[in-house]
Design goal:
InterPro entries: Glutathione-S-Trfase_C_sf, Glutathione_S-Trfase_N, GST_UstS-like_C, Thioredoxin-like_sf. This protein is α+β, with helices and mostly antiparallel strands and 268 residues long. The chain contains eleven helices and six strands. The chain has one domain: 3-Layer(aba) Sandwich (Glutaredoxin). It has a four-stranded mixed β-sheet with strand order 2-1-5-6, with helices on both faces. The chain has a two-stranded antiparallel sheet with strand order 3-4. The radius of gyration is 18 Å and the shape is globular.
Amino acid sequence: MSKLTFYDVAMGAPLHQRNSAVNPWKSRLALNFKAIPHETNWVTLPDITKVRKGLGIPPCRKFADGTDFYTLPILIDPTTSHKIGDSFDIAVYVNKQYPNSGGDLFPPQPLDYTYDPGAAILVPLSELQQNEYPQYARFNANVDAVFSMHTILMVGGMPFDPETADEAKKEFIRRAGVSSWDDFAIGDEQRKQTLVSFEKALGDLARLFTNDGPFILEKLSYADIIVGGWLRMANRTLPAEEWEQLKGWHGGVFGKLHDALEVYATVN
């Protein structure tokens, strides 16, 4: 199998210890679980639109105002010439294209989990249209919603490269539709309240881990990787004390999952 090329978001150096974008993490964990040889091309946040357009990959989502949302990850398979620009689509592709490599990402399971945010998400985006593995697609959307509603806890800890931090922050400001980086700041009391909300909101998700983890089923599936991608982001961006709290919530199922996925977190 020829090496595939994987595009991830470059943060500060060392890149392999500071990558924190959730959707690239979903794809990286999936690629490593499937034992797919690949190499990483690192792209700074301000350059993502240019790189994606240059590769001829259209955006798969839009901002609330209807403008195109150019993002990563991207996967290019030189054997088939396929270019895939969405984390869920990447998982579907490698599972079908390389069924005999690694494990099955999409074993049948009900995944009965929904989350209604009840308020606007920090960066609202159009819904993705997914026809493959619909139960996993719905699960992905609901997990994204519960974590996205609480990303205000993580934004301040993004490990930006000092050389590109100003540009990267401008991109975050544009995406969120706020006026300045200070709009992401929250005080101590609001932070405590948001942590309480976060723990409560994760309760129904935690109950899927009926055997107290580390996985929803006895074996790893893409459902675990969806959650695991968000946990990787939280690990890189939350203050250490809050990360330890999250790991211990609901019987420690999220800490167990994060630790169990460590073997698939290698950066190539």
